[in-house]
User: Which sequence fits this backbone?
């Protein structure tokens, strides 16, 4: 049984065809990383799953519920979303931000109750941010902000969480912290994760820590390859998608195999007018 | 979000302050009335009503000062709650209750009423209807581009407001300069001098409907203020909530403006004062904005009718008194740890 099922999904912004037939499934407790060039359609795909975009063709089912039949509140009880950056117009407290994760469980004319506050506090505790509940969200660092948003997604109590480049702009320490928390969420809560990312090494990290991980390599609105990180994140595939020469390193420590992928050169520097950003 | 310990005194302040101010405003006015007489009028009205020599004192308290204070509370509260709700909806701290053209629309309606009819009821009715019409036009203008609804709605509001401003200028130009132009000018500066119970009930129904609607969805405003994407992802039907909020804020503001004339500033500044004191959670912010906005207008009206020989227009005083008041609060709270 799959938590998320996407079949023959196509989507266009007017004349601009962004998704051209996407097929994949995500099982319970699985981490599914979507890896691809800037503008290849990763965020558009996440928006389709969230119900923010209506697909032109194809079908999305979350926990066997057809996505197009779900109201916004019903969708939000099935799938949570951790964005790359947040709007910071009003300075809410951390607890208020996490409490907003309970909105899908409150009626149009009601507010979260005491049980919701307790749930939000528990969610904050599970990411180690319980001491931050009265702090102002807009004044937190990038890493702390992401942890609060993970807590909010946990408060949403969904079987599936979507992450859109969750570690962009973070330093090493915060990056590791976020990645470990994602693993913890999957392990402890049995949640499935779909993660749009530019960091292939995160997928290797999940794999080497024994998490059921798959990677989809996305290019021009299609999945070029789907499989385990070791199968998909190869120098050949990288050259095909990003037009870069990459080196893959293995480092064995005891029974753990760490793998890394690193870009070292452009494939055809003179023929590629827009080399991808490192 | 205030803790339980903080929320009890906050709620008490929000309820007691308007009661005290409404009470106080009965004792202040140009007609000299002894405090003992006012208490007697309030608690033993029978004595005063039956005596024809004292009927004027009775009607002064019951039919002028009391409805005027109640109307000031309702109008100030409605403008302030609407402004606070729209700031959240548009994710813009500079938005006020007149954002979508309701005040200028109502202004034009009132001008039309003053020029074409002499009837006060027609002035209210036209002001109310044109206030709502301006919002509908702003909404339609904002829907021309469907991709960024809140941004284009604000733009629609600006365009429609400027069209109605031009129409107001035109009405001033064609109005009889001896008789009707001064009436228009005073209406546009805002005043509660016409207040009576009849006028209060005219405003009560739309204000009650609008404010109640805003209060019911005030948690959703928190979530909406995170932006369309996040709000949708958190389970908010953003389209439904937006339409509901625009309808409620417009009805409440139009209801207020049609009896009070154009009163700027309250819808912008009172929610910010309350933000500094209790934070940004609309569950606390909006009820307290209702109370503070109402109290602020009662105070302004007290000053307007007692500081000089003639009444000073309210629209002049809101900014003159509110500006320094806001700066004092900003200084005292040092931004409330919020911004």
Assistant:
């Amino acid at each position: 049984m799959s938590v998320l099922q996407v079949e023959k999904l196509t989507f266009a912004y007017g004349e601009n065809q962004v998704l051209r037939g996407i097929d994949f499934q995500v099982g319970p407790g699985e981490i599914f990383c979507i890896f691809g060039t800037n503008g290849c359609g990763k965020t558009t795909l996440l928006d389709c799953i969230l119900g923010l975009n209506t697909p032109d063709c194809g079908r999305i089912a979350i926990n066997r519920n057809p996505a197009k039949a779900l109201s916004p509140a019903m969708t939000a009880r099935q799938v949570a979303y951790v964005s790359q950056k947040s709007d910071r117009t009003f300075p809410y407290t951390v607890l208020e931000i996490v409490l907003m994760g309970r909105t899908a469980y409150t009626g149009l004319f009601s507010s979260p109750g005491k049980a919701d506050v307790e749930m939000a506090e528990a969610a904050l505790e599970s990411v180690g941010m319980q001491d931050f509940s009265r702090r102002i969200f807009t004044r937190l660092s990038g890493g702390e902000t992401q942890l609060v948003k993970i807590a909010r997604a946990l408060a949403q109590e969904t079987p599936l969480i979507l992450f859109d480049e969750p570690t962009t702009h973070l330093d090493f320490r915060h990056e590791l912290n976020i990645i470990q928390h994602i693993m913890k969420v999957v392990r402890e809560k049995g949640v499935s994760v779909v993660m749009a990312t530019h960091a292939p090494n995160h997928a290797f990290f999940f794999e080497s820590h024994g998490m059921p991980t798959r990677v989809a390599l996305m290019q021009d609105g299609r999945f070029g390859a789907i499989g385990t990180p070791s199968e998909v994140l190869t120098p050949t595939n990288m050259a095909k998608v990003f037009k870069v020469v990459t080196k893959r390193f293995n480092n064995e420590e005891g029974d753990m195999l760490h793998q890394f992928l690193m870009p070292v050169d452009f494939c055809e520097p003179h023929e590629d007018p827009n080399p991808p950003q490192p | 979000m205030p803790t339980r310990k903080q929320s009890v005194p906050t709620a008490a302040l929000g309820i007691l302050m308007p009661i005290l101010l409404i009470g106080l405003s009965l004792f202040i006015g140009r007609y000299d009335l002894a405090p003992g007489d006012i208490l007697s009028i309030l608690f033993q009205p029978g004595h005063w009503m039956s005596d024809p020599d004292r009927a004027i004192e009775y009607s002064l308290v019951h039919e002028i000062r009391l409805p005027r204070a109640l109307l000031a509370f309702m109008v100030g509260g409605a403008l302030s709650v609407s402004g606070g709700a729209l700031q959240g909806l548009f994710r813009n701290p500079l938005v006020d209750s007149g954002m979508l053209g309701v005040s200028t629309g109502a202004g034009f309606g009132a001008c039309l009423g003053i020029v074409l009819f002499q009837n006060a009821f027609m002035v209210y009715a036209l002001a109310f209807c044109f206030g709502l019409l301006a919002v509908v036009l702003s909404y339609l203008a904002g829907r021309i581009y469907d991709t960024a609804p809140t941004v284009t709605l604000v733009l629609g509001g600006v365009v429609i407001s400027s069209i109605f401003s031009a129409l107001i200028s035109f009405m001033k130009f064609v109005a009889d300069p001896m008789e009707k132009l001064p009436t228009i000018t005073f209406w546009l500066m805002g005043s509660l001098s016409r207040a009576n119970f009849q006028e209060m009930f005219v405003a009560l129904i739309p204000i009650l409907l609008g404010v109640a609607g805003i209060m019911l969805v005030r948690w959703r405003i928190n979530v909406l203020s995170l932006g369309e994407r996040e709000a949708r992802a958190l389970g908010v039907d953003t389209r439904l909530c937006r339409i509901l909020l625009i309808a409620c804020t417009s009805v409440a503001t139009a209801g207020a403006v049609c009896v009070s004339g154009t009163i700027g500033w309250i819808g912008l500044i009172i929610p910010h004062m309350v933000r500094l004191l209790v934070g940004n959670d609309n569950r606390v912010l909006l009820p307290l904005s209702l109370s503070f906005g109402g109290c602020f207008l009662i105070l302004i009206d007290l000053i307007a009718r007692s500081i000089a020989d003639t009444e000073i227009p309210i629209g002049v005083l809101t900014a003159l008194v509110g500006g320094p008041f806001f700066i004092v609060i900003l200084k005292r709270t040092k931004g409330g740890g919020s911004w």
